[in-house]
Amino acid sequence: MGQWVLNLNDGKLSSEQGNASLSPKATDILALLVAKPGVVLSREEILHAVWKDLHVSPDLVREYIFEIRKALGDKAKDSQYIETVGRRGFRLIGQISVQSGEDISSFHRRRNLQPDTLPTVKFCQSYDGTSIAHTASGEGYPLLISGSWMTHLEQDWQNPAYGDYIRHLSQNFSLIRYDQRGNGLSQWANVDISFDRMVDDMEVVVDAYGFEKVAILGLSQGASVSVAYALRHPSRISHLILSGGYPRGRRQRGNRMEFEESEALVQLIRTSWGNDNPAIRQILTTMFMPDATKEETQWFNEFQKLCGPAENIAQFRALFDDINVSGLLPQVTVPTLVIHSDRDAVAPLSEGKLLASKIPNALFVQLNSPNHLLFEAEPDFTRMIASIRDFVEVPNN
User: Fold this and answer.
1) What spatial distance separates the first Cα and last Cα of the chain, rounded to whole Å?
2) What is the tens place of the pLDDT at every residue in 318-331?
3) Alpha carbon distance 209, 192 (integer Å)
4) Per residue in 211-252, pLDDT tens?
5) From the CB of residue 387, how many other CB atoms can be counted at a distance below 10 Å?
6) Cα–Cα–Cα angle for 169, 389, 141, nearest 5°?
7) pTM above the 0.85 mark?
8) Strands (E), the chain
């Protein structure tokens, strides 16, 4: 029985017998077992430590233990590394050490998406009286993330992809977020879901914090809202970052198939959004994060129901598919960075390139990913965060 060495940074295992790689969650579980050698950890303890408050199936622990054993060449019946203790849990009995210079306890603190105390959620009123929920985390130069159609200021810390953005950007910025009208913690009922009102919402949130200038990160359809705000108040924006954005929605690109897909998706959302069967939400999950693991998919499928009622979500989708700000792009005067995944299924790469080509002097960063929002484990995630930080010229904390 040889000794294995686990690299916490990339999940690679190495020994004289060879090398193997673990998925991020399998790395988390093995690191937890290595931190407590010989101690029996129940499934519930592992679930709480690795997934914290996410509601996932306990069977996932068994599946990841199987992955770890396979990488180690271990067997459940005659285990040399990870022993199953009947009806109690699992414990480490073999020699596995950690290569990373980071100790295991700090590793688990860093991997935890949600802070012990969530930032306070506050409310302001948009110009038509609609209540808009907003919050801020971190310290540094002010960076506002545009509102979106599937966000929730408290639940977003647990979001498998978006939570990574929040945590990393909060390390370098005073990060301002808000839930778009009709969505999340903002007002759901009796709201005017229209493009101009969304620009109003961004304006009142910026004003609520009193900064002379802010940087704005426009994600997805929020890129178009951010462009419109940049024309309305160019003096209030120091830097404009557009990530996964599109100036033209699906119905505005001259593609008949995309138009018909939009019509079908809006109708499915309107009739099936809140059903216990997650089929329609699964379609969106697959579009947004095709690389998601089983538990990440399960979480996002359920999360979508918390974001708003079916009619609001359907109106959002129809509105976003009709967006067209391509004629406004040459008028943008603030420094702009465009970031886009090369295989994004939500916003085609061509739309990101259109943003960069039409906005004067815009910079462009192309990411290697099929996901609309990148996961922390992806190689280009660090590059993406660094490009935002370097563009706004803030130091790396």
Assistant:
1) 42
2) 999 999 999 999 99
3) 24
4) 999 999 999 999 999 999 999 999 999 999 999 999 999 999
5) 18
6) 70
7) no
8) 4-6, 12-15, 18-21, 82-85, 89-92, 96-98, 122-125, 131-137, 141-145, 173-178, 214-219, 237-243, 336-341, 363-367
